[in-house]
Amino acid sequence: MEISNEKINQIAEAIANKNHQVFSNREYDKFTDGLFWAWENWANDVIESYHKGFEKPEEPTHEFRLQYTQDVLSNVPEEWQELIESFNQ
């Protein structure tokens, strides 16, 4: 599946801004489950740069949501075809 960088960036920005209304709820929830799992389970030295040395927030920061989404959609877009197709922007 081919997806443009522009579309990846638009989707990443929507997810980073928690704009779930532009996606299928099921697909958005499935994607953000992985995002939250990564935030909770990745090594602190990886996550620390996303909260700038302050105490780690309970929810992923905007910067983490943005980078995680861009990375996932750039590397394995075929796994997220339904999420990408449900994007209404």
List keywords for this structure.
single chain; about 90 residues; mainly alpha
Portion of residues within helices: 55-70%
Strand content: under 5%
Principal-axis shape equals globular
Overall structural class, as computed from helix and strand content, comes to mainly alpha
Largest sheet: none
From the alpha carbons, calculate the radius of gyration and give it in angstroms.
13 Å
Count of DSSP H/I helices: 5
Notes on the protein architecture:
- There is one protein chain.
- By secondary structure, this protein is mainly alpha-helical.
- Helix content is 60%, strand content 0%.
- The protein is built from 5 helices and no strands.
- Helix 1 (5-16) packs antiparallel against helix 4.
- The chain starts with a helix and ends with a helix.
- The model has no long low-confidence stretch (mean pLDDT 93).
Q: What's the arrangement of secondary structure elements?
A:
Blueprint: H1 5-16, H2 25-41, H3 44-47, H4 62-75, H5 81-86
Summarize the structure.
With 89 residues, this protein is an all-alpha fold. The chain has five helices and no strands. It is globular.
